[in-house]
Amino acid sequence: MGTTQLETAPETKYWHLKTVIGEALDSEFAVGEILPNERDLAARFGVARATLRQALEQLELEGRLQRRRGVGTTVAPPRMGVAVGAAGNGWPGSSGDAWQPADCTQEIPPAVVAELLGTGADEAVHVLRRSRMYSGQPVAADLLYVPAASVPDLSAIDIPDGVTRARVVLRELQRLGFDGEDRAVELGSARADDARQLDRLPGAPVLLVTTRYFGPGGRTAAVSVATYRADTCRLTFGGDVEFHSEQERRAS
């Protein structure tokens, strides 16, 4: 990587540094190659390490770099297009569902999820842990919250927690029937459990996709909170995408 006079750049220093490093990634480095350590990079560009970290974090957020546990910072491959619309997911447990169940327990959901489900603050629900693979690597982890009211016959089935119970919950959920869904996407940071499952560092940038599945009468039948790797995933949606101004969002 070459050097540059960052002090004279009209842009924010770290943003200009990001551009310079990005150009070097295109011309000097191959996918998977490890970057020099922070001390060497900061000395080469004549910047503080804090400025360098800001630039590297932005490149990671844009999917140009990956921080790998025990390896360091490497050049990332091109992002994969992962469909998150109904056509790419399907109803939970249906033939078009791309998620693989791994576990199922009964827990009290976070307050924001309980509000979406319409359950009581202390009411336990079925929590299914699922994963999504793409080209042989994990790209997303999912928590699917299913209230007891959505699977009323499950109480008569004595199955311990685990993947078998997860499959039974999905089977019972299919009997309910669905009447639509809505979906929200936001940027977040990886929790420790998700980071471990996705081979990321805790706090790494992720894309959070929250989906509400509606049953008969428009009642919320289940809520999915999926965590996608922001460094490797480019989410694609089917159908129209709506954009709202900040004022409209506040009004809603």
In which range does the helix fraction lie? 25-40%
Biggest sheet statistics: 6 strands, antiparallel
Assign an overall shape.
Answer: elongated
How much is the radius of gyration in Å?
A: 22 Å
Quote the average pLDDT: 81
Distance between the termini: 48 Å
Strand content: 25-35%
**Helix and strand composition category:** alpha+beta
- In spatial order, strands of the major sheet run 4-5-6-9-8-7
Q: Return the string of H and E elements.
A: HHHEEEHEHEEHEHEEEH
User: How many DSSP-defined strands?
Assistant: 10
Would you mind describing this structure in some detail?
By secondary structure, this protein is an alpha+beta fold. The chain contains eight helices and ten strands. It has helices at 13-28, 38-45, 49-61, 86-89, 111-117, 163-176, 192-197, 246-251; strands at residues 65-68, 72-75, 80-83, 100-107, 125-134, 137-146, 181-189, 205-214, 220-229, 233-236. The strands form three sheets. The protein has a six-stranded antiparallel beta sheet. The protein has a two-stranded antiparallel sheet with strand order 1-2. The protein has a two-stranded parallel ribbon with strand order 3-10. Helix 1 (13-28) packs across helix 3 and helix 2 crosses helix 3 (49-61). The longest helix is centred in the first third of the chain and has 16 residues, at 13-28. The protein is elongated, with a radius of gyration of 22 Å. The N and C termini lie far apart (48 Å). The model is unreliable at 239-252 (pLDDT under 50).
